[in-house]
């Protein structure tokens, strides 16, 4: 039979039940993850963030900082004891660039690509430099502060669509795991069946 673990359950649940006749697992409160959630209100933690933490512990061990380059740039922290202890949410790369284009009349959209040099000589390369090195610097600053507050040299793993663009320029990002969220969902599925 077909089995699915879902992140956004309502519409998918109806489709799976009525058309695919699939069993669903709603990644939310009460689901066994193997990673205790130490958050003021665990219901506030998005299922994608939980899946990333579970996947990171399973594939890479603890302590760990997951940096997910999605709609927002999420930093999720797993303690040396293997507990999800919180994280950081920052504006994502695409959203930040879209906001810049909308507010600056003379700027235009550019490809998300690495510039040839940091010091750019045209507008497109200037935007690319700001994007790549700006987000790499943001990541390094946040990861360093997390490690200091955690009191551990937590390893890092990056995931998400634009991880390949930023990781080579961020000194604190050690590896890319493009299927981390899916791996976390698989692990949660297995732990509940």
Q: Overview of this structure, please?
A:
With 193 residues, the protein is of the alpha/beta class. It has six helices and six strands, in the order E-H-E-H-E-E-E-H-H-E-H-H. The strands form two sheets. The protein has a four-stranded mixed beta sheet with strand order 5-4-3-6, sandwiched between helices. A two-stranded parallel ribbon has the order 1-2. Strand 3 and strand 4 form a beta hairpin. Helix 2 (47-60) crosses helix 6. The longest helix has 28 residues, at 123-150. The mean pLDDT is 89.
Largest sheet: 4 strands, mixed
What percent strand? 15-25%
Oligomeric organization of the protein chains: single chain
Secondary structural class: alpha/beta
Q: Order of strands side by side in the largest beta sheet?
A: 5-4-3-6
The topology string of helices and strands comes to: EHEHEEEHHEHH
Radius of gyration: 19 Å
Percent helix range? 40-55%
- Unreliable sequence segments: none
Number of contiguous helices: 6
Whole-Å distance between the termini? 14 Å
Q: What is the approximate shape? A: globular
What are the salient characteristics of this protein?
single chain, about 190 residues, alpha/beta, two-stranded parallel ribbon, 6 helices, 6 strands, about 40% helix, globular
List the helices and strands and how they pair.
Blueprint lengths: L2 E4 L2 H12 L2 E4 L20 H14 L3 E6 L2 E7 L5 E8 L1 H11 L19 H28 L4 E6 L2 H4 L13 H12 L2
Parallel strand pairs: 1-2, 3-6
Antiparallel strand pairs: 3-4, 4-5
């Amino acid at each position: 039979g077909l089995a699915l673990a879902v992140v956004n359950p309502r519409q998918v649940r109806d489709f799976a039940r009525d058309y695919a006749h699939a069993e669903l697992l709603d990644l939310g409160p009460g689901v066994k993850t193997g990673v205790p959630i130490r958050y003021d209100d665990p219901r506030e933690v998005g299922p994608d963030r939980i899946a990333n933490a579970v996947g990171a512990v399973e594939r890479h061990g603890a302590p760990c900082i997951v940096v997910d380059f999605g709609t927002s740039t999420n930093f999720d922290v797993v303690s040396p004891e293997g507990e999800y202890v919180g994280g950081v949410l920052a504006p994502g790369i695409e959203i930040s660039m879209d906001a810049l284009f909308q507010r600056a009349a003379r700027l235009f959209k550019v490809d998300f690509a690495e510039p040839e040099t940091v010091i750019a000589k045209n507008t497109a390369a200037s935007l690319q430099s700001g994007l790549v090195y700006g987000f790499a610097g943001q990541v390094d600053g946040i990861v360093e502060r997390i490690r200091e507050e955690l009191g551990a040299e937590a390893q890092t793993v990056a995931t998400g669509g634009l991880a390949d663009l930023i990781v080579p320029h961020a000194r604190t990002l050690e590896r890319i795991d493009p299927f981390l969220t899916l791996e976390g969902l698989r692990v949660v599925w297995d732990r509940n069946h």
